[in-house]
Each structure stands twice: as C-alpha cells, then as structure tokens.
Automatic annotation (TrEMBL):
UniProt cross-references to Pfam families, sorted A to Z: TetR_C_7, TetR_N
Species of provenance: Streptomyces iconiensis
Coiled coil: none
Boundaries of every HTH tetR-type domain copy: 14-74
The protein, known as: TetR/AcrR family transcriptional regulator
Start-end of DNA-binding region: 37-56
Origin: domain of life: Bacteria
Keyword field: DNA-binding
SUPFAM superfamilies: Homeodomain-like, Tetracyclin repressor-like, C-terminal domain
Length: 212
C-alpha cells in the first residue's frame, strides 16, 4: 500500500512547483523558449534536476503548466455570477478579468508566445486552448444563462463575450505589449470596465430587467 504524502510534503511540492514556473517564465522571456534548457530552469528555481523532471518531463509540459497557472480561475472561490442582474454580473466578470490580465507575469507570458510562435506554433495553440478559451467559454456560458433568464437579448453569446472582453483588454492589457510604462490608475481601469458594461447593457440588456 502506497503511503499518501503528508500535508507538509504537499505544501513543499507546491512551493517548488511555483518556483519552477516563476523561474521558467523569466528565463523563457530573457533567453527564449528554445534557448532555455530544463537544467538551467532547475538551477534558477533552486531545485534539483530530478525534482524538476519529476514534475515536468518535457519543456512543453512545463509551458502548459505555466499557461494553466496564469489563466487559472478557482470556480469554488469565484463562481460565475447568478443570472438575473446583467449589470451586476458584467461588473463582477469585468473586475475579475482585470485582475487576471494585470497579475504579475501575464504580460510576460504573452510576450513569450508572441516572440516564439513563428518557430514553435504549438506555444500559441497551448496558450489559446488551455488559457484563453476556457476562460472565454465561462463568460460565454454566463451570457447564455442571462439570455435564458430573460435579462439579456442575445442572438450570439460568443460574439457578445468577444466584444465585452475585448473592450476591457484593449485598454487594460494590450498597450502593455508596446508601452513599457503603461500603468493606468485604478480610477481609469474602473471607468474602462464601467463603460464596457454600459455598452453591453445598451446593446444587449432586456428592457425592464434588473441592471438594464
């Protein structure tokens, strides 16, 4: 019978995993995906090669873990808003999206993909399939639920989700790819989310429903 790892050992393993992911993200950005061997990542993370290979047998597996980590949303801690109040729901999702896009390392992750995708197209596919799309799908499902509840009038929830997230990311995130000092203050970010919500309510809110 195999003994289960103790809480202490699980915590240590999680800490080492975080150190590996952080070190790999920095090295991929500094030296490129192809130019960063796993052994160098282990050294930078302060773990043995055996520890790294135990968690990530290939560089591709490590990159998948990086993408999953940065796009991770805990459904138990941050469930989708209950349908019925489109304004409140969109405000909640908008704020969460800002938090996701502005977390330390997210801009670096996109820079890695943009720089390396001509030679390693699988990195772009990983970022799209394991990162962006699962999050996008959660927003699309929320809008469909609002439509079913009668709080929204939608013919195409996929397009509506694209519009809403695009309005926010186009101000909060994408300028960071070109402007090193792009740091809008909290009031500007709040206004960007509020304006995106107002646009969605004007376009898709059902008359007479809460929040519209």
């Amino acid at each position: 019978m195999t003994a289960q790892p103790s809480e202490y050992h699980r915590r240590v393993a999680a800490q080492k995993r975080t150190s590996i992911i952080e070190a790999a993200t920095k090295l991929f950005l500094d030296s490129g995906y192809d130019g960063t061997p796993l052994a160098r990542i282990a050294e930078a993370a302060g773990v043995s090669r055996a520890t790294l290979f135990k968690q990530f047998t290939t560089k591709a597996a490590l990159f998948e873990a990086i993408v999953t980590e940065y796009w991770k949303v805990d459904d138990e801690e941050a469930p989708l808003p209950e349908p019925g109040n489109l304004r409140a729901g969109l405000e909640t999702i908008g704020r969460r999206y800002v938090d996701l896009l502005t977390q330390p390392g997210m801009a670096a992750l996109f820079r890695i993909v943009i720089a390396e995708v001509p030679r390693f197209p699988e990195l772009g596919e990983t970022q799209f399939k394991l990162g962006k799309m699962p999050y996008f799908e959660s927003v699309r499902r929320y809008l469909e639920a609002e439509n079913a509840a009668g709080a929204a009038r939608l013919d195409d929830a996929e397009m509506a989700a694209t519009q809403f997230l695009g309005m926010i990311s186009n101000y909060v995130f994408w300028p960071r790819m070109l402007l090193a000092r792009w740091e809008p203050d909290d009031s500007a970010i709040t206004n960007a989310v509020d304006q995106a919500v107002l646009t969605m309510l004007t376009r898709y809110g059902a008359p007479g429903t809460p929040g519209a």
